[in-house]
């Protein structure tokens, strides 16, 4: 699908700026607009009730300028490795505004989280036992328990889980047994909950249904524990559109709904936490790669780019393409039919392939201008999340893409 960069929630930066950057960069590159990051954070923060903390999920993009931008805006951070904890501390974040999650935390991870003072989310009794040993402080360590709900919404169940068997958390039906076992470890105290079973969800109502489930599980957990909870972490999963015909997630409806969820649960006097990654970072970035050659093979048109799944793996993992436009140096945007279109070339179904010696190297498909030629630049939008760090960067020893931060 061809979309104009004026569709700003799909493409950061404009055609002219990107062509200037392409002139300066010999190879494929990511370009990020920090102004978009500031605007996204402020918009979501303004939509949420005061009692909802907003954490940025570092895994979606751990770029230092992005972390610094969110830290300066007052974000909490959701980390899942010792490396992410270090990155957040380097960016000015603090352990007091950090949660730490992961289904298989290493000793190094737990020590990094404890050293920083982050709120750890335990995924099972083993985490409790290890934290009991590692906690050398005077007070019990306050932790949250991740619970795997009996049902959830998930566009990509294989990535996040949500209902059914899961590597994450304690199964909802085993919570009472878990709490009983955890009582043996008096240097750890369970005071919070995390429930997260959504991915790239565009419907605020479906997210809120999950959040109501989290509060119900929280009430039951508090009953089993015999005391209240100070934090209920609702996870991320706020979706972005990858195609122009998809709706945008209504974050004001989400915020208003969370206000109602709090009102409906007067037993809960703590704070809620949302930890979106994609919604905050995807629209900040684009990935740009030049066309190397084109061909038609048995009726199918291929455009081969200088970057492939060594830089962008998500389309192969999820079957969902990033939105794309094509630019030509010295000309501008090609073939979108809109005001920026300089050629009016018609669009033809195209498979975008990379330079790697495997037929797995596909980075998308869609309708692209029929006259696309070597040197033209294909721009992938929404590439600020789950792009550079979710790729097979070492495969075939091509250089890593440069990352350019603007604003
Ligand atoms: C624990 C946790 N929190 C937050 C996120 C962020 O999810 P999203 O980027 O879909 O908002 C993830 C994603 O895997 C996660 O595992």
From TrEMBL:
Keywords assigned: Amino-acid biosynthesis, Decarboxylase, Lyase, Lysine biosynthesis, Pyridoxal phosphate
Pfam families membership: Orn_Arg_deC_N
InterPro entries: Ala_racemase/Decarboxylase_C, DAP_deCOOHase_LysA, De-COase2_CS, De-COase2_N, Orn/DAP/Arg_de-COase, PLP-binding_barrel
Gene3D superfamilies: Alanine racemase, Lyase, Ornithine Decarboxylase, Chain A, domain 1
Residue stretches making up the Orn/DAP/Arg decarboxylase 2 N-terminal domain: 38-282
PROSITE patterns: ODR_DC_2_2
Cofactor(s) the record lists: pyridoxal 5'-phosphate
PANTHER family given in the database record: DIAMINOPIMELATE DECARBOXYLASE, GROUP IV DECARBOXYLASE
Name of the protein in question: Alanine racemase
Origin organism lineage: Bacteria, Bacillati, Actinomycetota, Actinomycetes, Micrococcales
């Amino acid at each position: 699908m061809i979309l104009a960069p004026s569709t700003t929630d799909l493409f950061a930066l404009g055609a002219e700026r990107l062509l200037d950057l392409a002139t300066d960069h010999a190879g494929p590159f990511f370009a990020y607009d920090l102004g978009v990051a500031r605007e996204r954070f402020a918009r979501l923060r303004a939509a949420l009730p005061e009692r909802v903390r907003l954490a940025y999920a570092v895994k979606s993009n751990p770029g230092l300028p992005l972390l610094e931008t969110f830290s300066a805006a007052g974000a909490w951070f959701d980390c899942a490795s010792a490396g992410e904890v270090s990155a957040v501390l380097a960016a000015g974040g603090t352990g007091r505004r950090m949660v730490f999650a992961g289904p298989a935390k290493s000793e190094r991870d737990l020590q990094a989280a404890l050293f920083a003072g982050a709120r750890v989310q335990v995924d099972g009794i083993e985490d409790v036992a290890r934290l009991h040993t590692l906690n050398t402080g005077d007070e019990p360590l306050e932790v949250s328990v991740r619970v795997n709900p009996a049902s959830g919404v998930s566009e990509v169940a294989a990535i996040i889980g949500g209902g059914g068997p899961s590597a994450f958390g304690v199964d909802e039906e085993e919570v009472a047994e878990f709490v009983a076992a955890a009582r043996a470890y008096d240097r750890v105290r369970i005071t919070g909950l995390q429930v997260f079973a959504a991915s790239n969800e565009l419907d605020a109502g479906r997210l809120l249904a999950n959040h109501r489930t989290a509060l119900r599980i929280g009430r039951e957990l508090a009953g089993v524990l015999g005391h209240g909870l100070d934090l209920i972490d609702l996870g991320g999963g706020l979706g972005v559109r990858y195609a122009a015909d998809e709706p945008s997630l209504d974050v004001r409806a989400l915020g208003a709904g969370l206000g109602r969820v709090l009102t409906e649960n007067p037993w809960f006097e703590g704070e809620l936490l949302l930890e979106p990654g994609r919604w905050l970072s995807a629209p900040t970035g684009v990935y740009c790669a030049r066309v190397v050659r084109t061909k038609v093979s048995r009726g199918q048109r291929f455009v081969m780019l200088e970057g492939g799944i060594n830089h962008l793996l998500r389309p192969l993992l999820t079957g969902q393409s990033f939105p794309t436009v094509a630019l030509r140096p010295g000309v501008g945007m090609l073939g979108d039919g809109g005001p920026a279109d300089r050629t009016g070339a018609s669009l033809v179904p195209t498979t975008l392939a990379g330079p790697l010696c495997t037929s797995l190297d596909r980075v998308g498909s869609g309708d692209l201008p029929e006259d696309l030629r070597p040197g033209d630049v294909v721009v992938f939008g929404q590439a600020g999340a789950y792009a550079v760090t979710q790729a097979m960067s070492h495969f075939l020893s091509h250089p890593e893409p440069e990352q350019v931060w603007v604003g």
